[in-house]
Amino acid sequence: MVTPEVEYWRTRAREAIASLARAEAPTIAWVRRTGGSPARLGVFPASFNPPTRAHVEIIRRAREHYDLEEIALLPGLTNADKRVYEAALEDRVAMLLAAFETDPTIAIGVVSHPFLVDMIPPLRREYATSEIFFLVGSDTFERLLDRQGRYLGRYSKPYPDRMAVLEDLFSASRVIVAARGAFTCSALEQLLEEEAAPYRSRIACMELSEEARFISATEVRWRIRRGESVASLVPEAVEAYIRTAGLYQ
Q: Can the keyword Transport be found in this entry's annotation (predicted)?
């Protein structure tokens, strides 16, 4: 049974999503704001399908290691690669609201465009003076480099090549890369030397605990389909939401 609290969260998410239907330029529809004006803003765009304990650890470590005063969580209306999700966007936003209900430093919104460089203008409208730190997993960072130029033509403005995209991105923001799975910070150093040497000073690597680095949303969904416990993989509030809403069955 869907509780009134779950339906309230879904309604807030639906209102934000609906407001993006009219957006042509990159736009963020905010579901929850902190009301602050941080000097250092973390921005974590991800599918959150569902939010996991790895997401929570990335947020915690980035906040501690890089003095981030606020972190904006931004699931997207669209995704650079994926077209279909097992949970609706309104449920994924609602799970974030549940997971971070008592954290006053977390803002939550829905972003219209999937690429980091496109998120900078709408972020600047809300955070004109904040230094922006994007938080990404190592797999997302490898896609961000776009070594094959797969995404050219899909950004909100035209770029002649991928290096022009990276120049725009790193001139306006920094990127903190969380080492996930078997990927290491040493591997990132090698990757930067080969692909993004001019921007090394704008990119940092963050190690996670051995437990968190191997947690994935894919495994969470797989376990639920098999009727197995996910208590060790997701925050307690997210587990309760999944159970109440009957997600990932």
A: no
Q: State whether CATH 3.40.50.620 applies to domain 4-215.
A: yes
pLDDT tens digits in sequence order for the chain, 249 residues long: 567 888 888 888 898 889 887 778 999 999 999 988 899 999 999 999 999 999 999 999 999 999 999 999 999 988 777 777 899 999 999 999 999 999 999 999 999 999 999 999 999 999 999 999 999 999 899 899 998 889 999 999 999 999 999 999 999 999 999 999 998 888 888 888 888 889 999 999 999 999 999 999 999 999 999 999 999 999 999 999 999 999 999
Cα separation, 136 vs 54, in Å, equals 12
Cα separation, 136 vs 153, whole angstroms: 22
Give the residues across from 181 on adjacent strands: none
Taking the model in full, what pTM does it have?
0.95
